[in-house]
């Protein structure tokens, strides 16, 4: 409110007092005449939800008189009033009169009030201060000492993210709890922030006079007649130059599409926020309050109510709502919820049901309270049927209820006062907050304060029984010179957000959320409680981070030297934040608590920076080398800086060269660095054969041990042989044989194992292996000779002759085809006839088995014929037939089933022709020859040793072979 406006109100108040003194004498004479009416008026207050009959009779005419259809605008309504003469006469008389009350009652009330004012004026200043101090000593004790704010005020160090340091301050600088410091501190319920941005600029040049909130924006009216639409951060969205005088009230429809304003210039203006619509209504007197129907944005339902000093409540543009008594008082406040309209005049609060076009009730002004022109009555619909009333230093909560219909009559609504209490401060605003109430309290002067200097306003949370839950004193700009009427309170109940408005300032109070609770705990070093509660409600946190809270807790534990507890909490508090892990690992290492933190350090999910793991290993190198070696076994080498660790360990080894633990650590690190030779040398030096072989096999280091075969065999022959046999591709048998020639027993074990695994792998060394078997394991020699084809028969026979290994000689002679000598050896040297018979049968069976592997025995004769006549078995493109048997003897034995036929064949070869063989005199089928004996013998020898092939197909005629060229 501007200074001019406050001055004008003050002048009106003085004129009103003078009028009251004049009227007092006149109305005393009528006291007795209206005594009965006085008693009826005193019973008029609502008790228990039902009014007295006297009240019903007195208000009957007014209830029956609904909104009058008096035309389309205020001019027509004003004409009607002029014709009836309802409001003609002195304006001050209208303000003094109470409708329906006897004049002597009015005189008594005014006399008491006048005496009180006169006594205050006559009372010395110090006595007044003492009286005020006695009355308000409880509030004064807890009120914080206010400090005057100036333009050079420094920015609060704790303020974060404020764009304007003069307009957005931390809540602690705006509100303080009025509790004694010695008492146990309670957590505040609200937090505060000064609204800045565009608001700062607006209120530097204008004074705020009205405010209204919508879920989407804030509307601000000023004493200069402007209306500003702002977002909740104080940024201007739109403005209207709607009036030429102070804006008294604002109203916004539920959809947020229209805003209405009223002013002392006598106008009501309705603007569309998203359209160019604008309607203006002009009246003769200042309009103090208005309310839009919540459904105003719907076409055909554009109703609004307004009222002011003209003493009229206008229900939209259709007419006036007046009382039957023709005595109309000024309307100062209007509140509309659903179909219910509540308004305040000089005598009380009235509630009208727009749906039924009936007034429901009248709630009188609390006795002893100031008139609404001196102390505004605050109306607030908490729900569609619950009205909060704050008038001067009284609070009432009224609830609209409905009586059941009886005797065919329509259900009637009535009002029940469900709460009523007196305060020790004046009410500048009232709002619901869940089950409690939020009251903007204007505190009377404290003892010791200079006259005319106001206290800071307080935002109090009280129960509906007036039990105070919290109280915060607010540092509003220029509060020292402001009155109770200069403040406004607007709220968004859904978000528990409250806007406290003064002419030069807007402060936003919000219900403290969980983040604010956590901040309060942290400020008081209640870290464990903060962490526990933050973990339980992590999803609710918005500004805080659980990890940040955890860090503060860890810091407190470190400071208290609770290292083990701090380390054990790291996985829970640091979670998967690698950077935080790096930070705290470094902290533990610097205070020499690396052993405490190491068991909890994650190796993956997250994997920390390489530097973190390296730092830990360095600490163990200095303090505990065995623990270092253990970690090198457990940790993947990719985690840490291997080369850095090698350099550090080598430096230590240089000082302690015989320290086996350090050497093993160096070997492990060398392996990790790919320096396998260095690692292997260290293992061999330490005679760690198992580690050496594990190293070779695990990392496929066979190429690195070519020159160390003998050394490996020396440590563990069995393991060395197994390893060498397993890697013939990496370490060739020739390379192994060369290194083991001086270690024949090891060489024998190697070649024997190699032959068992792959008979062809060491084929080049089979003749050497025959010697080794003869030297180290004769029992395996015969088996080896029978399985291998990679040795010279003559050499094998000679070795066996020299060592008189007769069974082996028989086998070799048999393979050479010298069956007669073999049989002679069996019969003469070994004198083993059964063995000789077995030998002959074995020779036949060996050849038969070789054929049976290819075709069935039923086709043996055909197969022999094909082989001898040149029929296709394995022909190539040139038609050549390759003999598939190792010698002719095998083929004949297969055909004739008699090994002696070979002798007949040999004899025929010597005589120069092939003829009938022995054993029955039959000729070998399909075989003819014309050559001489020498040629036949040579041919037979060639056939016997190498087989044969058809060189000329012309020799094949009539299923027979002709000529000698075969």
TrEMBL record:
Biased segments, Basic and acidic residues type: 1-11, 24-34, 48-63, 95-106
Entries under Pfam families matching the protein: Beta-prop_Vps41, TPR_Vps41
Highest rank taxon of the organism: Eukaryota
Disordered: annotated segments: 1-106, 120-194, 911-932
N-terminal signal peptide: none
GO BP term (any one): endosomal vesicle fusion
Domain Vps41 beta-propeller: 190-510
CHCR repeats: 722-867
Feature: compositional bias, Acidic residues: 12-23, 35-47, 80-94, 146-187
Keywords: Protein transport, Transport
Compositional bias of kind Polar residues: 120-141
Protein name: Vacuolar protein sorting 41
């Amino acid at each position: 409110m501007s200074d001019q406006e406050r001055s004008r109100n003050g002048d009106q108040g003085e004129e009103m007092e003078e009028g009251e003194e004049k009227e007092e004498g006149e109305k005393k004479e009528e006291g007795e005449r209206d005594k009965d009416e006085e008693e009826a008026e005193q019973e008029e207050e609502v008790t228990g939800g039902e009014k007295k009959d006297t009240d019903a009779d007195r208000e009957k005419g007014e209830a029956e008189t609904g909104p009058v259809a008096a035309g389309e605008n205020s001019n027509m309504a004003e004409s009607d009033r002029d014709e009836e003469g309802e409001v003609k006469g002195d304006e001050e008389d209208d303000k003094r009169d109470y409708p329906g009350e006897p004049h002597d009652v009015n005189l008594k009330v005014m006399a008491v009030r006048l005496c009180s004012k006169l006594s205050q004026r006559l009372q010395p200043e110090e006595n007044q201060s003492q009286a005020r101090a006695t009355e308000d000593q409880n509030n004064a004790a807890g009120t914080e000492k206010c400090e005057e704010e100036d333009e050079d005020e420094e920015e609060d160090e704790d303020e974060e993210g404020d764009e304007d340091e003069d307009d957005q301050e931390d809540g602690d600088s705006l509100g303080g709890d009025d509790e004694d410091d010695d008492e146990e501190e309670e957590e505040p319920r609200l937090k505060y922030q000064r609204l800045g941005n565009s608001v700062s600029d607006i209120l530097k040049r204008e004074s705020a006079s009205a405010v209204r909130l919508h879920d989407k924006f804030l509307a601000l009216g000023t004493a200069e007649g402007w209306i500003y639409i702002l977002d909740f951060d104080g940024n201007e969205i739109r403005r209207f130059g709607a009036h030429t005088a102070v804006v008294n009230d604002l109203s916004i429809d539920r959809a947020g599409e229209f805003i209405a304003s009223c002013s002392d210039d006598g106008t009501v203006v309705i603007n569309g926020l998203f359209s160019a619509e604008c309607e203006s209504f002009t009246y003769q007197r200042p309009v103090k309050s208005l309310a839009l129907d919540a459904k105003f944005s719907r076409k055909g339902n554009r109703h609004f109510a307004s009222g002011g000093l003209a003493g009229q409540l206008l229900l939209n543009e259709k007419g006036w709502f007046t009382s039957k008594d023709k005595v109309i008082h000024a309307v100062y406040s209007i509140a509309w919820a659903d179909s219910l309209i509540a308004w305040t005049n000089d005598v009380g609060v009235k509630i009208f049901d727009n749906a039924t076009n009936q007034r429901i009730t009248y709630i009188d002004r609390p006795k002893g309270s100031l008139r609404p022109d001196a102390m505004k009555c605050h109306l607030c619909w908490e729900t569609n049927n619950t009205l909060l009333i704050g008038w001067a230093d009284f609070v009432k909560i009224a609830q609209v209820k409905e009586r059941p219909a009886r005797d065919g009559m329509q259900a009637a609504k009535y009002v029940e006062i469900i709460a009523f209490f007196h305060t020790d401060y004046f009410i500048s605003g009232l709002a619901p907050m869940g089950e409690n109430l939020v009251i903007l309290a204007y505190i009377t002067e404290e003892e010791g304060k200079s006259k005319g200097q106001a206290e800071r306003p307080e935002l109090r949370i009280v129960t509906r029984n007036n039990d105070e839950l919290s109280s915060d004193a607010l540092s509003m700009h220029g509060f020292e010179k402001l009155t109770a009427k200069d403040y406004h309170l607007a709220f968004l109940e859904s978000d528990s957000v409250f806007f406290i408005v003064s002419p030069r300032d807007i402060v936003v109070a919000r219900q403290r959320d969980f983040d604010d609770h956590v901040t309060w705990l942290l400020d008081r070093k209640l870290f464990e409680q903060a962490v526990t509660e933050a973990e339980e409600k992590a999803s609710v946190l918005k500004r805080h981070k659980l990890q940040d809270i955890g860090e503060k807790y860890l810091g407190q534990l470190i400071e208290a030297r609770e290292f083990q507890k701090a380390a054990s909490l790291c996985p829970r508090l640091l979670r998967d934040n690698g950077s935080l892990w790096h930070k705290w690992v470094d902290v533990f290492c610097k205070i020499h608590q690396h052993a405490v933190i190491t068991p909890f350090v994650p190796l993956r999910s997250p994997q920390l920076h390489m530097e973190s793991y390296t730092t830990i290993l360095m600490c163990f190198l200095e303090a505990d080398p065995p623990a270092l070696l253990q970690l090198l076994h457990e940790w993947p080498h990719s985690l840490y800086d291997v080369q850095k660790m090698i350099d550090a360990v080598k430096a230590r080894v240089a000082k302690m060269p015989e320290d086996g633990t350090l050497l093993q650590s160096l070997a492990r690190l060398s392996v990790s660095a790919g320096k396998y030779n260095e690692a292997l040398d260290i293992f061999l030096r330490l005679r760690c054969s198992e580690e050496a072989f594990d190293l070779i096999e695990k990392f496929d280091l066979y190429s690195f041990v070519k020159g160390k075969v003998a050394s490996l065999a020396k440590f563990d022959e069995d393991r060395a042989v197994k390893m060498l046999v397993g890697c013939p591709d990496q370490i060739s048998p020739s390379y192994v044989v060369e290194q083991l020639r001086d270690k024949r027993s090891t060489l024998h074990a190697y070649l024997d194992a190699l032959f068992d695994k792959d008979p062809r792998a060491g084929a080049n060394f089979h003749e050497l292996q025959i010697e080794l078997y003869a030297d180290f394991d004769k029992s395996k020699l015969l088996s080896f000779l029978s399985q291998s084809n990679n040795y010279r028969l003559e050499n094998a026979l000679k070795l066996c002759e020299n060592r008189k290994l007769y069974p082996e000689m028989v086998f070799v002679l048999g393979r050479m085809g010298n069956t007669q000598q073999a049989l002679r050896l069996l019969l003469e040297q070994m004198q083993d006839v059964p063995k000789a018979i077995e030998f002959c049968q074995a020779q036949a069976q060996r050849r038969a088995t070789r054929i049976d592997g290819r075709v069935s025995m039923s086709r043996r004769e055909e197969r022999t014929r094909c082989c001898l006549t040149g029929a296709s078995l394995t022909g190539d493109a040139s038609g050549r037939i390759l003999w598939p048997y190792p010698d002719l003897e095998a083929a004949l034995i297969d055909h004739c089933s008699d090994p002696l036929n070979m002798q007949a064949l040999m004899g025929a070869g010597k005589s120069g022709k092939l003829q009938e063989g022995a054993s029955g005199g039959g000729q070998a089928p399909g075989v003819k020859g014309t050559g001489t004996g020498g040629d036949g013998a040579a041919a037979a020898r060639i056939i016997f040793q190498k087989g044969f092939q058809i060189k000329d197909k012309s020799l094949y005629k009539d299923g027979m072979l002709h000529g000698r060229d075969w």
